Amino acid sequence: MSAPIKKKAGVLGATGSVGQRFILLLANHPDFELFRLGASSRSAGKKYKDAVTWKQTDLLPENAEDIIITECTYEAFKECDIVFSGLDSDVAGDIEKELFTNGLAVVSNAKNYRREADVPLVVPIVNTDHIDIVENRVKAAVAKGEKKPGYIICISNCSTAGLVAPLKPLVEKFGPIEYVTAATLQAISGAGFSPGTPGIDVLDNIIPYISGEEEKIEWETKKILANVNKLGDGFDLLTENDIKVSAQCTRVPVSDGHTECISLKFKNRPAPSVEQVKQALRDYVCDAYKTGCHSAPKNSIVVLEEDDRPQPRLDRNRGNGYSVTVGRIREDPIFDIKMVSLSHNTVIGAAGAGILIGEYLVAKNLL
Amino acid sequence: MSAPIKKKAGVLGATGSVGQRFILLLANHPDFELFRLGASSRSAGKKYKDAVTWKQTDLLPENAEDIIITECTYEAFKECDIVFSGLDSDVAGDIEKELFTNGLAVVSNAKNYRREADVPLVVPIVNTDHIDIVENRVKAAVAKGEKKPGYIICISNCSTAGLVAPLKPLVEKFGPIEYVTAATLQAISGAGFSPGTPGIDVLDNIIPYISGEEEKIEWETKKILANVNKLGDGFDLLTENDIKVSAQCTRVPVSDGHTECISLKFKNRPAPSVEQVKQALRDYVCDAYKTGCHSAPKNSIVVLEEDDRPQPRLDRNRGNGYSVTVGRIREDPIFDIKMVSLSHNTVIGAAGAGILIGEYLVAKNLL
Amino acid sequence: MSAPIKKKAGVLGATGSVGQRFILLLANHPDFELFRLGASSRSAGKKYKDAVTWKQTDLLPENAEDIIITECTYEAFKECDIVFSGLDSDVAGDIEKELFTNGLAVVSNAKNYRREADVPLVVPIVNTDHIDIVENRVKAAVAKGEKKPGYIICISNCSTAGLVAPLKPLVEKFGPIEYVTAATLQAISGAGFSPGTPGIDVLDNIIPYISGEEEKIEWETKKILANVNKLGDGFDLLTENDIKVSAQCTRVPVSDGHTECISLKFKNRPAPSVEQVKQALRDYVCDAYKTGCHSAPKNSIVVLEEDDRPQPRLDRNRGNGYSVTVGRIREDPIFDIKMVSLSHNTVIGAAGAGILIGEYLVAKNLL
Amino acid sequence: MSAPIKKKAGVLGATGSVGQRFILLLANHPDFELFRLGASSRSAGKKYKDAVTWKQTDLLPENAEDIIITECTYEAFKECDIVFSGLDSDVAGDIEKELFTNGLAVVSNAKNYRREADVPLVVPIVNTDHIDIVENRVKAAVAKGEKKPGYIICISNCSTAGLVAPLKPLVEKFGPIEYVTAATLQAISGAGFSPGTPGIDVLDNIIPYISGEEEKIEWETKKILANVNKLGDGFDLLTENDIKVSAQCTRVPVSDGHTECISLKFKNRPAPSVEQVKQALRDYVCDAYKTGCHSAPKNSIVVLEEDDRPQPRLDRNRGNGYSVTVGRIREDPIFDIKMVSLSHNTVIGAAGAGILIGEYLVAKNLL
Q1: Which residues are responsible for catalysis (chains A, B, C, D) (predicted)?
Q2: Do A200 and D254 touch (CB under 8 A)?
């Protein structure tokens, strides 16, 4: 039996911090072949190894070293089966639009299209079912004898992932959540490299603010926990009446791994017990795993019983960074339940999520 | 005019981290003279400089260097006008009791007597009025011709201080608070030195747990925000009906300064606006300052407008560590108001609070 | 073809930091089967998972979880083919002696027997030839029809490994080194966990001292760079006339990876050029690799050309931690050559070295 | 007796990290009045508090807040008695030249004029006597009835200061030093703020390289330890024959305070003993202190006996940052003496040195 032909993958913003992670994850991927690397005109024409300031703890993969960087245009990427975008939001809007309107499949970490009504915003251990609306569109076009249309799927904000991951199994099991608060302690890798967070800000210090982050968590949670609408072409977004979300975000001296202190109140009474909550989280299996995606973790949510866990240094790599770890599940004196979640912000919170979405698109025959 | 005679001050647990801070603050104090240093029998008999592993960024004061350490007994401390206790809770109970039942005035950082009905639990920029119940007791005894009785006053838990400080002016101005949540990012100096938090735990890491800390915040807040009862011999503690408090505590790689993400909901409607809250915090002047205590900060609460403040490295020393700094005051989607507070955990959260309580006792003629 | 039978491996000091690393490296090892775990009487009788405070970033291997810990006696370990010791030096002397005098093969990270005349002190990418003296002893005994004797082989001090690794290829190629200095910046994992380096010492700080470390580097270098003597039963140790070594050791806020600033002067004139030094380091292949040991790195020494490398975070895992990385090779205004080396202190500098020595013993048929 | 009239002080590069330190130190200075603040055209015209991103742990002094920033021209600074320059070297050359050729006294932290034959390069606890050549020039001009000429005095590189400070007393007492090596562990505040060292580079990491730093130490040491020549208009620079200097520089996760591992060999035999070296360092009193400069430390060199000192967190503020602390003085197996020095890089290594030079110029009547 011959090996399946790999899909040709492109990476936009290949020299940036998210782009570097895409390249690492694509290096020996069973579904994808690294085919195109795009960056700014300053880097275009250079070999990747000469253009990049590589800042990963894993070595630059050999198969990426000598790829000649192109500019980020449809023309350059038109042969790709899928394009992963690590572009900054100031340029992502136009470039991504050029690609998906011309028929390409784009999976983007940028925030630009997250709020569009017909764009899935996906945490792949949570809501791959949202990709149904893309599937519906593609099937309808094919049924009409049209060319397979391009589309974009957005990766969620990193700190949103660590919140909605433990919420999803609880909503499925115990019904709607009325209130949820999250105080985040976010790693500096989330801020990128050029220049990213200055050294003096992370030495013996906390920065109690991340621009736009709280708004992202508060809005994105409502979209990700929503259901696909009856027409199958959009989402029944949750409203303030359905769920109220309040976030406080801080930057802490941690390289990778976002810690979040979460409190929540269910709508239905009586609320589930601490033990029921733990069991629901342990029992949860995500669709991406059921669908057979390579990177999907068997345990989407890892529940720890030790008082002092999860910890970023010890737990961020569980499930190769695709699992979200939850600990200190206990009663809350105001709401129902308190807990601490930990998610790997550059894996399930960014590039890894993109790759897992890509695997799901392969499995669903959408590329 | 001759200088006033200074009060003789003793320090229990003098070699520990809180004891070291007491000694620093007493070194050139206008009210107090460093008179006795007590530690375990292992250190007793030695010169202080030979027994201590000094870990402060300020140098060991010369006037403490050659003091011979005594054991922690009433006999050794009976000549003191006031005794500051930095003892660990496993030994503080018995030792402190021996001293105050024999007539000494004790100001303690240990948790042992904080919940006693007739013991003031004091954050000195918040509730020095609680000391009235001691004053009443002393006056009553004196009126009866009895000997001035001993007593103990407890310093609050460090992270409690950073929460109740901004709550107090708001309760005074806008009435009771129904709900308050605090997610804390606490400095390692709060964990002491021997051994304290291990290095490997604070390097590229967060510890999402501090033993007993959340319970302390949740209970102590109710006592500190209470009023003295009508008889003047205890407190009308707040109940779960009066205020619900929920805390989540983490240890972060910061040397000094506890950051707290606070959300709160007032009982009265309409709730004050963000601007009214800021103004109330700015206008607040604590009684210790009005009473003329040397260390009392003019601005008990410093309100910052910059998005990314307060930060531990930049703001912990405001008011010499006696002020609490508050920033990011904004509307909360669930409760009324969100904010971030920063307090110097070894000053207003521990030894400094003790010294300021001592100054208040001098001003009130209670020593 | 059936799989080869794995050797039965025991671990002494199994709950400590070095012991934990041994267990990780033995978890899925092609040569070894995890067979016995020994610890203090406090832990003996418990399941490993219940006795250990696991502090590794990799998860506790499943095959170690339920092993019942034994005490560290010959009786308990007598069925082992090899015993890896992570014992503290205060107990290692007697325990290890009991084992090897009774016929067991012991590979130890403790310092107790490093200076014995007939004990190889081995950095396995440098001087596995020193194990010849053990081989000679074993063969002689077997030739006489005696029972195969026990023996001990010592792992070098962690910071010694990062120094001698780049020296060895240079001595081989260019002859003796007259002077070498090393200023080390050592990671905190080298100090163990209980309690290890206190958090307050590694936050915004450097500790310019590690007890006994400089003496170890200065002495061990002379033994490791020595040749086996003519009789094949000991070493022609280098003297102060052969090589002068001076070390200055500091502890820095790094989790894993020792950085060393090295300067050296060759005895022979003219000294090799910078380029010749680089080439010699690049060309070096260690005997353990030639012998086919699984963990031996193809490139024992990785030479980097970038100005700002090696860096602990980026380079410590090269060769899975078994390679030593060298950068900034340049002329020295006083001696001949300056360079910076980086070695993973818990892999090639401790437990990993032990495992690689074990693999070499298997290859040499010495178990 | 009326207070002396303060000298009018200007600061170039006022919004940068060195400029901020100048402003802090000038805030309540007995000799100087903060008179002009210069920055780039982007900031000129704004109030200082609106233009600066203040990153100091001390608050922005009130008397600086509302000063209107000017451009860095002679015209704007011509009324100043002294100008302190914190300019970056890419612009410092032209601007400083315009000022001193027009008659102003400039004290600069930039490197541009450090190597000029007639420009003193000064560590003010080491070689204020080098300012004699300026004094001679000024006196000669005045004697000829000419206008008092302008001049520039350069502050040394920060890591040079921590090396030459302990060398100077030893050269004075025991004669020339033949060899000296320094491996430095430098704080990130030395890299400035915009952007300075990235956070990801200082978290669990060491950067073994600082551009140009080693060359600066190796050259500047020869000028600072030189004597004024016979003509009194320049220096008899040391040559490679007089002293050989070799430096290896690293950046470490420390906010303030450069640690240096130093080894040295004297020219004269027998070399002094460890005790003699300690005594010479303890006995040293710098000229700036004898001259009565306010900021000059009584103990230029603080000698510590504890094994594990000096440490940046504990010792950097000795003498308010103007003292250099030395510990671990011991025999060196290759050279004569090893030791560890610690210097506050932004005080005696930069802005503080400038202020102390300014005080010396006042004392010498050179402004």
Answers
A1: 158, 258
A2: no
Closest CA to B24 of B51, B78, B64: B64
Count, in order, helices (H) and strands (E) of chain B: 12, 14
Q: In this complex, which of B185, B209, B338 lies closest to A246 when CB atoms are compared? A: B338
Do the chains contact at B255 and D318, CB–CB below 8 Å? no
Domain ranges within chain B, ordered by starting residue: 7-157+351-363, 159-343
| C342 CA: distance to closest CA in chain D (Å) | 10
Q: Check pLDDT > 80 for residue A318.
A: yes
Going by the DSSP 8-state scheme, the letter that residue B333 receives in this structure is S
ipTM: 0.95
Q: How confident is the model at residue B196 (pLDDT cuts 50, 70, 90)?
A: confident
- Cβ atoms within 10 Å of D57's Cβ, excluding its own: 15
Q: What is the model's pLDDT at position C320? A: 96
Give phi and psi for B220, each to the nearest 5: -65, -35
Do A159-343 and A7-157+351-363 have the same topology in CATH? no
Place of tokens 């197996």: D333
Asked whether C134 and C366 are in contact (CB, 8 A), the reply is yes
Q: What is the pLDDT of residues A30-44, one digit of tens each?
A: 999 999 999 999 999
Contact A248 B183 (CB under 8 A): yes
Looking only at the bridges linking them, the beta strands covering B301-303 and B324-331 are parallel
CATH number of C158-343: 3.30.360.10
Which residue of chain D has the CA closest to B57?
A: D314
How far is A296 from A172, CA to CA, in rounded Å?
A: 19
How far apart, in whole angstroms, are the C-alpha atoms of residue B279 and residue A205? 27
C-alpha–C-alpha distance, residues A179 and A245, integer Å: 6
Average pLDDT taken over every residue of chain D: 96
Q: Which residues of B touch D204 (CB under 8 A)?
A: 203-204
Using a CB-CB cut-off of 8 Å, the residues of chain A touching C313 are: 57, 255
Q: Are D244 and C334 in contact (CB under 8 A)?
A: yes
Q: Cβ neighbours of residue A13 under 8 Å, at least 6 residues apart?
A: A19, A38, A39, A72, A85, A86, A87, A88, A92
CA-nearest residue of chain A to C312?
A57
Fold for the domain defined by A159-343: Dihydrodipicolinate Reductase; domain 2 (3.30.360)
- Chain C contact set for D250 (CB, 8 A): 185, 259, 261, 340
Please list, in sequence order, all residues whose beta carbon lies within 8 angstroms of the beta carbon of residue C93, skipping any fewer than 6 positions away.
Answer: C110, C112, C113
DSSP assignment string, C60-95: PPHHHHTPBPB-S-HHHHTT-SEEEE---HHHHHHH
CATH topology of domain C7-157+351-363: Rossmann fold (3.40.50)
Q: Write out residues 198-257 of A within 8 Å (CB-CB) of C.
A: 203-204, 255
Residue A77: per-residue pLDDT? 98
pLDDT > 60? residue C173? yes
Closest chain D residue to B200 measured between Cα atoms? D204
Structure tokens at A150: 């391009």
At C250-264, the pLDDT tens digits run 999 999 999 999 999
- Identity of the residue numbered A326: V
Q: Is residue A13 helix, strand or coil?
A: coil
Calculate Rg over the CA atoms of chain B.
20
DSSP A47: B
- Cβ contacts of C199 on chain B, cutoff 8 Å: 188, 191, 196-199, 201-202, 253
DSSP secondary structure string for all residues of B42-99: TTTTSBHHHH-----SSPPPHHHHTPBPB-S-HHHHTT-SEEEE---HHHHHHHHHHH
> Given pLDDT bands bounded at 50, 70 and 90, which one contains residue B1?
very low
pLDDT of residue A102: 97
Record the tokens describing residue D289, joined without a space.
């202190």
pLDDT of residue B2: 56
